[in-house]
Amino acid sequence: MCGIMGFAGGGEAAPVILDGLKRLEYRGYDSAGIAVYDGGRFCVVKRKGRLSVLEGELQKAPVPGSIGIGHTRWATHGEPSDANSHPHLGSMSRIAIAHNGIVENYKALREYLAGKGVAFSSDTDSEVVAQLAEHYYSGNLLETVAKVINAIEGSFALEFMCLDEPDKIIAVKKYNPLIVGIASGATYVASDVPAILRHTRQVVYLADREIAVLTRDGAAFYNMDLEPIQKRPETISWSMDSAEKGGYEHFMYKEIMEQPRVIEDTLKSAMPGGSNEPVLDALDALRFDRIKIVACGSAYNAGSVGRYAFESLCRIPTEADLASEFRYRDALIDENTLVILVSQSGETADTIAATLEAKAKGAKTLAIVNVVGSTIAKEADYTIYTMAGPEIAVATTKAFSAQLILLYMLAIRLAHRLGRIGREEAGAMVAEIGTLPGHVRGIFGEVEKIQHYAATCFNSKSIFFIGRNIDYAIAMEGSLKLKEISYIHSEAYAGGELKHGTISLIEDNTLVVAISCCDRLAPKTESNVEQVISRGAKVLYITSGGIAFGSDKVFTLREPRVGELFAPSLSVVLLQLFSYYVAANKGCDIDKPRNLAKSVTVE
Ligand code: M6R
Fold first, then answer.
1. Residue 573 Cα, ligand 1 centroid: separation in angstroms?
2. pLDDT at 153 over 90
3. Do the domains 3-236 and 248-434 sit in the same CATH topology, yes or no?
4. Which of 294, 326, 344 should be mutated for ligand 1, with most atoms under 8 A from CB?
5. 224: CA distance to ligand 1 center in Å?
């Protein structure tokens, strides 16, 4: 995911573009750049790092000009660097472009253009768009854009400028969002409404394969046959604040809602033709007899779920380990161990140290990371990426769900390679993972029920989470989510452990959240529920089974039935929503909980 912004108007373009990009930074923040037309040439400034780095550059050396485009990047092809930042110019510096999306056939196009003598200056898929446009250009930018769009496959929101037609920006989209803002004496193009809201509330939403031509005097719209089409501006009534979160009150909620798409994209990335497939293929050649999954916080919880998948499907001894412990324990690992490092940010200090420790001991290292080009992604021998896009809320939700998908896919592949499951069984499991996005959408239909129940719990002093085996692993994530955003003390226990001490903490109306989605263990968890009810607890019972407790102390949330290994992907959504509403009822700062940071880069 990236953010793009363009401005054609009377005043200085750079400050307007920069301000718009700031409001799009949630879409990507590993590098940023702008291209402004200034009397016969493009002034291009691009910098790796947060937008503030670009801002600093522009303060030192302002770029004059009243028309230009900008981009804030979330790397997919090519690591974050100055050269890979957008906008990209064609090799004759005649055409400038900024792109959000993925050009799926970029390799073929790159080879074709290289064969024509075109020299590329970045590792991105996007640069082919600029080079192709220059290659096709013969005096009409609109026709060139249509030709480029017909040649590229994949998804895009694109903006183009050309030195020979310096008064216009041309914008077009397919699958990625793009809006055009219209004001008196200026037009704007952006990935999202907040980027332009301080300038205009008159917005045209582009549909796929519609083309907009923007000048300071207005915008004209065309279909792919270059016939003019009428587009009516809509008036936006949102406040600035709500607009940046897509209308939701918090990024965390927005990110919870994005999970069906994230699961789909991450699954696709691990399938034939997907972006993670080459690394997964390379992993097939590795030989090891033990697996360690090493991570911190929620990523460790994802690893704990993954452990069950590896052990149950592959029958390989697997442990989940906290990076902060692993790094100092002189762990028993060697060249026959596969160490899987899991991290959203790729910058967690303990997980980086664990990666280096594992490598020093000769283990094979595989990173599952969300941020392209991050330290862990670079240090590990192999890296596969979750397709969560930028996660802004400190409490992880969508990145966690994406981590589960890659762990499942790794376990299925390995089990098949080891002959533990046949091709058909593996295919059936992948097909079942494919049903998860639909089930998550179904769970969103339960939001009101969860909200109402959460409203009865926000005064709790302590909340316990229980489950057995893989349900216990996901109970740990439920407990972490609740405590980090609601500040309510919480612990997760393996259901069978309760009687060894913790049950003494149960008092009248203590809330116990019980997760029971493993059929084979359901009777055991039901007994635990009975035990805590008889000591006065009230219970939130999350189950995919049929049991109904005859007690008004139990509130049941049903989740769709899937194989027990994949049930955590559904349980976690219910748990996230529960935590969210408890914290919302308490009036907590949900996106930025006290004392926490999104990326923990210190010990
Ligand atoms: O970036 P990472 O995944 O390595 O971060 C690990 C933990 O710091 C992180 O999961 C933390 O526990 C989250 N706040 C949980 O929501």
1. 17
2. yes
3. no
4. 344
5. 45
Fold classification of 248-434 (topology level): Rossmann fold (3.40.50)
Catalytic residue among 2, 162, 314, 518: 2
Distance 600 CA to ligand 1 centre (A): 8
Q: Is 553 known to be catalytic?
A: no
Domain definitions of the chain by residue range: 3-236, 248-434, 447-586
Q: How far apart are CA 165 and CA 399, in angstroms?
A: 43
For residue 547, pLDDT over 80 is answered with no
Mean pLDDT within 252-262: 95
Which residues' Cβ are closer than 6 Å to ligand 1?
296-299, 343-345, 348, 351, 394-396, 484, 596, 599-600
Q: What is the DSSP letter of 180?
A: E
Out of 298, 385, 476, mutate this one to test ligand 1's pocket (max ligand atoms within 8 Å of CB): namely: 298
Does the active-site annotation cover 2? yes
pLDDT in tens, 348-388: 989 999 999 999 999 999 999 998 878 899 899 999 999 99
pTM: 0.81
Dist. CA 227–CA 403, nearest whole Å? 45
Rounded mean pLDDT, 275-282: 95
Comparing C-alpha atoms, which of 443, 453, 544, 532 is closest to residue 493? Answer: 532
What's 447-586's CATH class? alpha beta
CATH code of the domain made up of 3-236: 3.60.20.10
Cis amide prior to 87 (ω within 30 degrees): yes
